[in-house]
From TrEMBL:
Protein name: Lysosomal protein NCU-G1
A Pfam short name: NCU-G1
Principal localisation: membrane
PANTHER family documented for this protein: GLYCOSYLATED LYSOSOMAL MEMBRANE PROTEIN
Protein role: Required to protect lysosomal transporter MFSD1 from lysosomal proteolysis and for MFSD1 lysosomal localization.
Transcription regulation recorded as keyword: no
Keyword Transferase tagged: no
Signal peptide location: 1-24
Family: Belongs to the GLMP family.
Keywords recorded for this protein, A-Z: Glycoprotein, Lysosome, Membrane, Signal, Transmembrane, Transmembrane helix
Length: 396
């Protein structure tokens, strides 16, 4: 009994060590704001370049707001690849690689849609009245940044210009932590050295319809076959410990990742928040639309980056919309925040935490112990009965 208990406990400890965050960094990162730019003012021009050196490859990330559409590019190449960016004034004009990267995955938010959710579902439908707002009209301001060897983070905000509202803001935070762990904030997505956490908030936007909701329009691009398609995958997770009440994980996978276990991905939970204080009460649903084939936005970071190979890139778009039936629409809170990670490799999966393993062990262990003690008790009684009976016979 006891040796097996000890074995169970040590197995549990071993498993929890296996799933606990490693404190070593999995990639050596160096991050720079507007590298090579002479005429850039540090809070109105935001292009972050991060070189993440691993054992056998380099993951290059570019986070660009200079051409107005928030864009993240991930490129993987050999240890020899490095990137120089050429600028004219405060605009990048050329990405100069010492060696062509092997693979690139990119995502841009090019538009914000306001739509009249007449059936109150939370999904955006082309038949509903809607208005698009191009993010080309936004000038982004850098509010905060951390660019060190153990973290790269920027927080950028853009004002949405409306006739009667000066407080409407889109706020975007990008954070790269080069090791595997759960994010501090809900929905506690998993970040790794191969991914970046992205948090988008839509604050105090004015609404024009009775049932207004907002949707983000994404353009995804990857160096995959242009006739192939991105894949939408929904996984059920056994454990909602990190995101109470949410048991699904959604992944958008590039064809390379879908076919051969390595490629670009977006990963998120189908949840968004209607208050800066994130909790179960302030959570609502985030919906993803189907993908359609599209073109790269004109004069964008994407079209600049893929200038020489535009015909050879897979480009698709999708919507992410927020809200659920009966939640009072966007105007109920005038706030929506949503988080996702964008990465390269294989998307991380939840491990069981020590707590969950303990619960499972107790759940399985207690009945086993009870059953065993029941059996022991029966055996013991039989043994005593036979013994007493023998004694009686002896006395006879
Ligand atoms: C940007 O920098 C200028 C000059 O350094 C400063 O006056 C301004 O307040 C800054 N803006 C923000 C949003 O930090
Ligand atoms: C990197 O460059 C060095 C010298 O320039 C070369 O010897 C080496 O083969 C290159 N490595 C790769 C992986 O291309
Ligand atoms: C790219 O950089 C190399 C030096 O690293 C330089 O010789 C070359 O002219 C640059 N290419 C362009 C198009 O600027
Ligand atoms: C949004 O509006 C609320 C209420 O008017 C205000 O308290 C809050 O500061 C505004 N938020 C931003 C980011 O302007
Ligand atoms: C918006 O709602 C108000 C009050 O419920 C109603 O009078 C009005 O006709 C609605 N407008 C539209 C465009 O549906
Ligand atoms: C893709 O096309 C379908 C059918 O026209 C449409 O319902 C959907 O909203 C489109 N998705 C995007 C992201 O444009
Ligand atoms: C949201 O903003 C509208 C004006 O756009 C205002 O009438 C409404 O009271 C605001 N709601 C909250 C919860 O602040
Ligand atoms: C990151 O990507 C590399 C390949 O580039 C892979 O070997 C490594 O396992 C990945 N790490 C994580 C944490 O996904």
């Amino acid at each position: 009994m006891f040796p097996s208990l000890i074995r169970v406990i040590s197995a549990m400890l071993f498993i929890s060590v296996l799933f606990s965050p490693t404190n070593g960094l999995d990639r050596k990162i160096s991050a720079h704001l507007n590298p090579g730019c002479q005429g850039c003012s540090s809070n109105t021009t935001t292009l972050v370049y991060i070189r993440g050196e691993g054992k056998s490859d380099v993951l290059h990330q570019i986070w660009d707001f200079t051409k107005h559409l928030p864009t993240v590019l991930l490129s993987v190449g050999s240890l020899n690849t490095s990137l120089n960016i050429q600028w004219i004034e405060n605009k990048p004009i050329y990405f100069n690689w010492t060696e062509k990267p092997w693979y690139t995955f990119a995502a841009t938010i090019d538009k914000l849609y306001e739509y009249d959710d007449i059936h109150d579902t939370g999904y955006i439908n082309p038949q509903y009245p809607q208005m698009e707002y191009s993010l080309k009209r936004i000038s982004w301001e850098l509010q905060e940044s951390i660019l060190t060897n153990s973290e790269a983070m920027v927080h950028v905000t853009g004002k949405i210009h409306n006739r009667n509202n000066n407080d409407a803001v889109i706020s975007i935070k990008l954070d790269l932590l080069p090791f595997k762990d759960y994010a501090v904030e809900l929905p506690h997505l998993i970040h790794t050295a191969n991914s970046t956490l992205i948090d988008v908030s839509l604050v105090n936007l004015t609404t024009s319809f009775n049932a207004s909701r907002y949707a983000l329009h994404f353009v995804l691009a990857s160096t995959d076959n242009p006739t192939d398609t991105m894949h939408y995958i929904m996984r059920k997770s056994l454990d909602d410990e990190h995101t109470p009440g949410v048991f699904e994980i959604i992944e958008i996978k590039t064809p390379s990742l879908y076919d051969s276990k390595e490629g670009g991905y977006l990963q998120f939970r189908p949840v968004s928040y209607t208050s800066p204080k994130r909790n179960v009460a302030s959570s609502t649903i985030a919906h993803v639309s189907q993908f359609n084939r599209t073109m790269m936005p004109r004069d964008s970071t994407l079209s600049l980056f893929f200038k020489e190979s535009q015909q050879m890139i897979l480009v698709q778009d999708m919507f992410v919309s927020f809200g659920e039936s009966g939640d009072g629409y966007y105007k109920q809170h005038n706030y929506t925040a949503w988080a996702y990670t964008m990465g390269y490799g294989t998307p991380p999966e939840d491990g069981f935490s020590f707590f969950v393993i303990l619960i499972i062990s107790i759940g399985l262990g207690v009945p086993i112990v009870l059953a065993l003690s029941g059996v022991a008790f029966v055996l013991f009684r039989r043994y005593r009965q036979t013994n007493t009976r023998t004694r009686f016979t002896n006395e006879d």
